[in-house]
Amino acid sequence: MQSDLKPNFYLLDKPKTWTSQDLCTKLKKNYKFKKVGHSGTLDPNADGLMLLATNGYTKLFDYVEHTDKTYKVTAILGYSSPTLDVDSDLTFHESIDANNFSDDIKNFLTNLLGESIQTPPIYSAVKVKGKRLYKYARKDEEVDIPTRKIKVDNTKLISLEENKVIFEITVSKGTYIRSIVEDLGKYLNTKAVVESLTRSAIGNLKINHKKLNKNIQNMDYKTNLYSLDWKEVINLPIVELDKDMFDVIKNGQLLTNDLFINKEKYILSINNEIAAIYKPFNENNFKPDKVLI
Fold first, then answer.
1. Do the domains spanning 69-190 and 238-291 agree at the CATH topology level?
2. Which CATH number applies to 9-65+205-232: 3.30.2350.10, 3.40.50.10490, 3.40.50.2300, 3.40.50.300?
3. CB of 234 within 8 A of CB of 203?
4. In CA terms, which of 39, 121, 165, 192 is 20 to 30 Å from 182?
5. What is 69-190's CATH topology?
6. Which entry of 4, 13, 22, 43 is annotated as an active-site residue?
7. pLDDT (tens digit, 0 to 9) for every residue of the chain, 293 residues total?
8. Is 244 a catalytic residue?
9. 35 phi/psi in degrees, rounded to 5
10. Would you tell me how many other CB atoms lie within 10 Å of the CB of residue 270?
């Protein structure tokens, strides 16, 4: 059964080895969407949740407030690699039993909590002077990697198994888990790489969501595509408008303040679909911030 092709948000379980763009292309081709975008890249070596939007809803990612992400991570101690994971050639350094460093590992995870400055991996999609960092790395070109502020909201040590550390972590958008695992190795005076990475939550959207689209490898145009209720994704006040306001919104006309309760951004909905985002303009009017129709 094919989707109704209306613009919306979709929650997908990305398979390992797939790129984030692979997922967008799959949806675009199978369901004939004009445009498909995602809320944040997930490494090919990782699996788990990705939030996608189609057609006009791709304009709405800037209004998604709850963008923190939760991951289950398996790190291997005593190894290094150029990509900081098992996707490139591994170099063995030493045999380590993670159980001998239990207290140190717990301290490391606790110390991560709060804000800090992170340097992304050289093998990443971060752009410097219009060029992805991994392209510099592949050509062995020198580049200054810009740092970024990140926030870690929660960490939980799940288990220690031989040379492996398995933990859960909730981080702000744009945080690289591979860099955190590299830092874990440094903290223990050794090396460490990511063996597996599963994104289990994006904000309030969890891996057990009833509208999660699974088995992406086997998806075709006949597969039913489950859409999210956009109210789960964007937390803005809503004004429901009649159909006769369609042209007014489409033409981006100003709206009087009496339609709105507070001076803040609003979703304007027609037939339970987002028509536009409006924001305060002056003493008397609101103006469009984004128009989708």
1. no
2. 3.30.2350.10
3. no
4. 39
5. Pseudouridine synthase (3.30.2350)
6. 43
7. 444 568 899 999 999 999 999 999 999 999 999 999 998 888 888 999 999 999 999 999 999 988 899 999 999 999 999 999 999 999 999 999 999 999 999 999 999 999 999 999 988 888 898 888 989 989 888 899 999 999 999 999 999 999 999 999 999 988 999 999 999 999 999 999 999 999 999 999 999 999 999 999 999 888 999 999 999 999 999 999 999 999 999 999 999 999 999 999 999 999 999 999 999 999 999 999 999 98
8. no
9. -150, 140
10. 17
Which CATH superfamily includes the segment(s) 238-291?
PUA domain (2.30.130.10)
How far is CA 279 from each of CA 49, 107, 136, 263, rounded to the nearest angstrom? Answer: 31, 45, 41, 8
Q: Please report, for the chain, the start and end positions of each structural domain, with discontinuous segments joined by +.
A: 9-65+205-232, 69-190, 238-291
Which two structure tokens, joined as six digits, stand for 88?
């490139």
Q: Is the dihedral of CA 20, 24, 25, 31 positive or negative?
A: positive
Q: What is the largest CA-CA distance in the chain?
A: 71
